[in-house]
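[Discussion] Sanity-checking designs against the backbone

I'm trying to build intuition for which residues belong where. Below is a structure token string of 259 positions. I'd appreciate it if someone posts a full sequence so I can compare it with mine line by line.
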């Protein structure tokens, strides 16, 4: 039985994928969870990039679904198999088994409307897959609305990342609103300020207090860090960051409050 499903969301480019990968490193090294699944639900699939794992289109859920459509059109699928069974088998096929965790890249379908249908299957995919894991980490697309409506019911914690910007704060508030509108049952909604100047911290804590929702908590801030930029620019595997790295250590202090 899955004990935790954690989804990371926030405005585009604020550091969601970066923090998700550092969270993954923390989860792996804590040795508290045996079976770990990472779902990259961002259509511009980039968790693979960050961890030096090239994932071709054919290996993504979107890619599998596109091939499936071809097979259906060519009537290569036996009639007695249900649609859900087919989709499930394609999803298991898309799973990438790595040494310490499994990775599922949602990717996007080809052609108009396909991205949508990939995301529509996300809720079902989480339900089916999560049974086999102790913990599931989800990199959620920035536009949470659509995603949330389909998938949120089982997601236990939501981490919202923001930078020190009006748009980042606005997206944070909008995400909380959406979870209410669609009655998503998150246990905790945790806000992290990333690339956030220490002397502006109170602007974020005040804003989080104003949300007036008992689930929403301020988790802390993390600074802009040159080492993180360097790892990114040199295309190194972020999972290989030293556990003594000061940014990683600060991030771990925040994550320890979640796990
Ligand atoms: N604390 C930090 N210090 C320096 N650079 C950072 C920091 N956090 C993130 N970055 C850099 O910012 C860029 C965007 O980060 P990332 O890809 O994690 O954001 P994202 O929210 O996942 O973006 P997207 O919405 O496009 O998926 C990357 O180049 C990353 O290396
Ligand atoms: Mg990302």
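Best answer:
Here's mine. Compare freely.
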């Amino acid at each position: 039985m899955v004990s935790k499903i954690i989804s990371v969301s926030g405005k585009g480019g604020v550091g969601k994928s970066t923090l998700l990968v550092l969270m993954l490193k923390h989860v792996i090294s804590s040795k508290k969870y045996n079976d770990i699944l990472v779902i990259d639900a961002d259509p511009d699939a980039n968790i693979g990039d960050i961890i030096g794992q090239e994932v071709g289109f054919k290996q993504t859920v979107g890619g599998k679904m596109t091939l499936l459509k071809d097979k259906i059109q060519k009537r290569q699928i036996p009639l007695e198999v249900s649609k859900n069974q087919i989709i499930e088998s394609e999803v298991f096929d898309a799973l990438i088994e790595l040494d310490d965790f499994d990775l599922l890249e949602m990717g996007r379908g080809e052609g108009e409307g396909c991205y949508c249908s990939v995301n529509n299957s996300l809720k079902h995919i989480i339900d089916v897959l999560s049974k086999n894991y102790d913990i599931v980490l989800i990199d959620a697309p920035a536009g949470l609305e659509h995603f949330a409506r389909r998938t949120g019911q089982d997601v236990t914690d939501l981490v919202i990342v923001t930078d020190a910007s009006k748009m980042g704060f606005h997206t944070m508030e909008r995400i909380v609103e959406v979870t209410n509108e669609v009655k998503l049952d998150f246990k905790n909604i945790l806000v992290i300020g990333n690339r956030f100047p220490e002397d502006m911290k109170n602007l974020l804590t005040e804003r989080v207090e104003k949300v007036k929702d008992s689930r929403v908590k301020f988790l802390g801030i993390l600074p802009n860090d040159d080492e993180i930029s360097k790892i990114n620019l040199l295309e190194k595997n972020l999972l290989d960051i030293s556990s003594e790295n000061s940014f990683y250590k600060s991030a771990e202090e925040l994550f320890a409050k979640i796990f």
